[in-house]
Amino acid sequence: MPPQKILISGAGIAGSVTAYFLGRAGFSVTVLERNPALRTAGQGIDMEGPAIPIIQKMGVEELINEKTTKEKGVAFVDESNISFATFDVGDKGTDIGKNGSGRVWLSLADKKHTGFTSAIEIMRGDLCNIFYTAANAFPNVKFIFNTSITSVQRTSSSITITTSAGKQETYDILIAADGFRSKTRQLILETNDSEAFIQSQNCWVAYFSIPRKPQDFPRSRGYNAVGGRFIMIRPKDDQVSSGYLVVSKDEPSLRKVQRKSMAEQKAALAELFADAGWEATRVIAGMKDTEDFYLQDVAKIQLGGRGWSKGRCAMVGDAAYCSFTGTGTTLAILGGYMLAGEILQSPDQPEVAFKAYEDKLAGYVKKAQSAPTGGPQLFVPQTRLGVWMIRTLFWLVYWSGITRWVGGFKMPKFDLPEYPFDRRSE
């Protein structure tokens, strides 16, 4: 009998997209999320390449357009807030217009990524909510919050899990979609090492909201400070902007508070950026007053020979192939679609489905994860000379107009398979 009950750990982007397509195909899907509600903190994110047709298949294109930040581009500035390099969306002919309601409208079918800003910039929390709402609309998809998996027992025909509430439940398939520090991945791969497979890039990023000021729109502004520090302020909505603090080294004071309280993390960052200059004082003050705060060390996940699955258990998104190159959201969306599609193709043989999922996607993931050694450190240098050099580089790129001809980073091409999701649920 084909597997009917599927458990997903994690209600983020990868988990919700996977739940959507499995629910659309008629499977009985349960999603466990350890947080009491959807996590709304996080950065502005973008989507490229194969994520676009998947979004269209989900019917959420207009919802995403309504929630985009309308960021026009990014300006790099000096200590006096003087811009020396500006890179706008549409520098290479992106069509930006208005729909019938007068709102800015960016057709996802025609997106072109030029420069440093994608034409689709949306806050992580908004995108998570859109995908969650789409998946939750299916009567056969159930989300349970404030609950996580504490143990996994498996046989050749089923998976039995114990939840943090002490309940035991049996499923046909278990999918880990709970982020790059996935606890479910540890249970699946039977390791007690919480840092296993995490390849730190010796870089830290904090995301949070601050009160908006007129200069925060329509472009993001980025500022390099000596000591491997970078500050960015990005448009978010009419009331608040997004603040980013980046430290491009394995900073001991941040490592010390990594598992500590939000207040302790904020205090460590405030001390590190106290003398950074530009609008650091304003950003620090806004950070101290917000509850919308998240600190993470930048890393990637490569499971190597272990693969992305074991028996009736599989991993998707950051839990399997976290990327720090700005491709993580696209990989999460693509991975959820592909995993659900291959389960649909081989519902009674999950190991066959998981192998096909990895075989078809692994090469693409490898390309998307690729970056020069020391990538964060190249763009956020430590010394005064390094800061001068990166500013000079941005200035030369801007004034040469090269982005108008070659554009910015583009996701590798991927031939997206078609899966009969609706046929099975009829």
TrEMBL record:
Highest taxon, organism lineage: Eukaryota
GO MF entries: FAD binding; oxidoreductase activity
Annotated keywords: FAD, Flavoprotein, Oxidoreductase
Alphabetized InterPro entries for the sequence: FAD-bd, FAD/NAD-bd_sf, FAD_aromatic-hydroxylase
Coiled-coil ranges per UniProt: none
Residues covered by the FAD-binding domain: 5-331
Name under which the protein is recorded: FAD-binding domain-containing protein
Annotated source species: Aureobasidium uvarum
Classification lineage: Eukaryota, Fungi, Dikarya, Ascomycota, Pezizomycotina
